[in-house]
Amino acid sequence: MRVINVAAAQMGPIQRADSREAVVARMIALLDEAKRKGADLIVYPELALTTFFPRWYMEDQREVDAWFETTMPNAAVQPLFDRARQHSIAMNFGYAELTPDGHHFNTAIMTDRDGNIVGKYRKVHLPGHVEYDTERSHQHLEKRYFEPGDLGFPVWRNLGGIIGMAICNDRRWPETYRVMGLQGVEMVVLGYNTPSVNAQKPAEGVTQRLFHNRLSVQAGAYQNSCWVVAVAKAGVEDGHALFGGSLIVNPDGEIVAEAVTEGDEVLVVPCDLDATRFGKETIFDFARHRRIEHYGLITSRTGAVPPE
Ligand code: CDV
Fold first, then answer.
1. C-alpha closest to that of 57 among 124, 126, 130
2. Which terminus of the chain is less hemmed in, N or C, by CB atoms within 10 Å?
3. Is 168 a catalytic residue?
4. What is the mean pLDDT of the chain?
5. Which region, left, alpha or beta, applies to residue 245 given φ > 0 means left and ψ of -120 to 50 means alpha?
6. pTM: predicted TM-score of the whole model, two decimal places
7. Where are the beta strands (DSSP E) in the chain?
8. DSSP one-letter string for 192-249
9. Are the C-beta atoms of 34 and 89 separated by less than 8 Å?
10. Which of 125, 140, 171, 233 to mutate to test the pocket of ligand 1 (most atoms within 8 A of CB)?
11. pLDDT-based confidence at 252, cuts 50/70/90?
12. Per-residue pLDDT tens for 211-239?
């Protein structure tokens, strides 16, 4: 058995006025709890250091840039790195990244047990819109504030396994998991901020939205025979509700742990990476069963084109 004890560290709401330092203190409390529960790896949400700022329409670029980190770790986040190294726990968390040459990404990093950053991922599938949209019940301006990720979907050897990262909306796209599956991924870790209300279909309801969350994550895990750890930022941020439902799914696509609150909550599960082998060697043995000669449209066409 090759076991990684994974902590899904769901975070409750972060208000617009909350400082990075206050958020990092909460993340350290979650890390301490994860340590007590024997974790090797802790997974935090997307944009873990701030409120989900893409809900706010901003025109002043200086105001936008205030939500971004220009270095990682920086002074506000260093205490988290220090505690993680002390505890010998690897981390994954998301933040808004502003590069030295002025690019803006929705980014996640992964560290090893010594607090070294060993992997970086930049969100590929950016949902939402660029301009203020009067038709929506609330704004979702990721396409305004971020560029699509430019790093693809790499995987990394860490903690004795092969681990990949994704961010929020990426979890709904089968391509996300399959590109990592083709690199032998054994565990996908991802964070999300998902509004409880569909801005374009308010009648949808949170039950259906949680169903789509589970459906996407469970399908990704099963079809690539890997573990998936999906972690929410949840609760009401300045009047805007985000759903919880953080979950850990095994390579059979079964949910093995699921959050029950919309606040700070830690789920720890021993994930045996060898449990990925059966699926990878049988029904999802890609080398034997995939038929790439029929998959050309996946990479040559973006939108659907129905026949005449
Ligand atoms: N942060 C996100 O990417 N949220 C999207 C919402 C807007 C649908 C998600 O897929 O959860």
1. 130
2. C
3. yes
4. 98
5. left
6. 0.98
7. 3-10, 41-43, 90-98, 104-111, 117-122, 155-158, 161-167, 187-192, 227-232, 235-237, 240-242, 247-249, 255-258, 265-272
8. E--BSS-TT-GGG-HHHHHHHHHHHHHHHHHHHT-EEEEEEB-EEETTEEE----EEE
9. yes
10. 140
11. very high
12. 999 999 999 999 999 999 999 999 999 99
Q: What is the CATH number of the domain that holds 8?
A: 3.60.110.10
pLDDT value at 269 more than 90: yes
186 is catalytic: no
- Show the domain range for 66: 3-300
Nearest CA to ligand 1 atom 9: 169
Give nearest CA residue, ligand 1 atom 10. 169
Asked if residue 211 is part of any domain, the answer here is yes
pLDDT for 102 equals: 98
Whether 255 contacts 216, CB under 8 Å: no
In a domain? residue 39: yes
Catalytic residue among 168, 186, 226, 237: 168
What residues are in contact with ligand 1 under a 6 Å CB criterion?
Answer: 46, 127, 140, 168-169, 172, 192-194
Domain-embedded: residue 80: yes
pLDDT of res. 202? 87
Question: Which residue type sits at 225?
Answer: S
